[in-house]
Design goal:
The chain is mainly α. The chain has one domain: Four Helix Bundle (Hemerythrin (Met), subunit A) (Up-down Bundle). Helices cover 87% and strands 0% of the residues. α3 runs antiparallel to α6, α4 runs antiparallel to α5 and α5 packs antiparallel against α6.
Length: 134
């Protein structure tokens, strides 16, 4: 009985570890998707005068580091080119929007922050749908 249980556990572990490159990429981009939602929230809170500019800027800087790291991961992935292109496009959108927010909060440019919040939401939604479809 123990042998059967040990064999079953080994087989189950081997099955769990073998992910397709697409599954692996979608798992690896999860932090970037979270950052997009976080940036959206931070921008919304700044627009509502609920958080200080320094908080938004610190959030943007942390997100930019992680988005840059994720972009490298996407570029090195063995996943299908179409998936990598879609993911990379959304990371690029979020990266550009983050840079815009960083400048806009300094200049008290509420219009640019509002537009960037929408861009974060749209990019996050694309990644969320990709994760659901897999």
């Amino acid at each position: 009985m123990r042998r059967h249980l040990a064999f079953f556990l080994c087989a189950a572990l081997a099955t769990c570890r073998q992910q397709s490159p697409e599954q692996k990429l979608l798992k690896e981009i999860d932090p970037a998707a979270s950052w997009m939602a976080t940036l959206q929230f931070a921008g919304e809170q700044w627009l509502a005068n609920s958080v200080p500019t320094r908080f938004v800027r610190a959030t943007v800087h942390a997100a930019q580091k992680d988005l840059k790291k994720t972009a490298r991961t996407v570029d090195q992935s063995q996943a299908a080119q179409s998936l990598r292109d879609t993911v990379r496009r959304q990371i690029d959108v979020a990266t550009a929007a983050a840079a815009a927010v960083d400048r806009a909060v300094q200049d008290n440019d509420r219009r640019t922050v509002a537009m960037s919040v929408q861009r974060f939401a749209a990019a996050h939604e694309v990644l969320r749908k990709l994760e659901e479809s897999r």
